[in-house]
Design the sequence.
């Protein structure tokens, strides 16, 4: 079955990969530094994603 | 006989997986199967079919997400309280964080936009009320969040199952 990546899939893949890197990277840093503060990296990414959905997707 | 903690954690894990496969199964249906169904349906029937799929589908979808998240949070809290923090718990924290973002996307973006879209579609089908101009935007936001959740589900599942056999992945 041929699969064409439309705009929704392109955005989903881009944001999905970015949020995964920030979240897993945050956990990795938290383990390395023994501090839960680094977990905020993933949270920050998700907040930016929410702002993009609300303000960036306008048409 | 198993103690209360062992039994309770086993029951929560079972509930977490049961709700989780329901949630992610429907997520894959909405993203991989539904678009192909709608493509094969005549234009004059698309709205009715969309409402028929989305209304019950999103009910199971969002409450399965809620059940998954609640069972997971209670499980993790109980486990943490019993065993304490260790590097071995990092995989489940990574999977849990990704799952939490997905859960927030379900209730905060997908359902919040789709419930307005479903109401507008029902009014249009019942009385011919025109679709509001914002309707396309509601669908777009919900779809972006749904596609992102589909991609997030792959690493989320990896780190959830990695907990039991890839503990050393964090060094």
Sequence:
């Amino acid at each position: 079955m041929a699969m064409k990546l439309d705009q929704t899939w392109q955005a989903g893949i881009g944001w999905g990969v970015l949020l995964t890197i920030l979240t897993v990277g945050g956990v990795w840093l938290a383990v390395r530094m023994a501090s839960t503060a680094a977990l905020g990296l993933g949270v920050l990414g998700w907040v930016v994603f929410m702002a993009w959905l609300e303000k960036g997707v306008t048409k | 006989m198993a103690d209360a903690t062992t039994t309770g954690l086993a029951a929560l894990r079972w509930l977490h997986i049961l709700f989780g496969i329901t949630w992610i199964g429907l997520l894959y249906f909405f993203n991989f199967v539904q678009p192909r169904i709608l493509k094969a349906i005549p234009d004059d029937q698309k709205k009715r079919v969309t409402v028929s799929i989305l209304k019950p589908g999103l009910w199971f979808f969002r409450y399965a997400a809620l059940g998954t998240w609640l069972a997971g949070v209670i499980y993790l809290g109980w486990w943490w309280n019993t065993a304490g923090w260790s590097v071995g718990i990092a995989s489940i924290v990574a999977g849990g964080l990704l799952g939490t973002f997905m859960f927030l996307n379900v209730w905060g973006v997908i359902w919040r936009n789709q419930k307005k879209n479903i109401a507008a579609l029902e009014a249009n089908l019942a009385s011919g009320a025109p679709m509001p101009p914002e309707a396309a935007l509601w669908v777009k936001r919900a779809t972006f969040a749904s596609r992102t959740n589909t991609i997030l589900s792959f690493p989320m599942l990896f780190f959830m199952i990695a907990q039991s056999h890839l503990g050393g992945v964090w060094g």
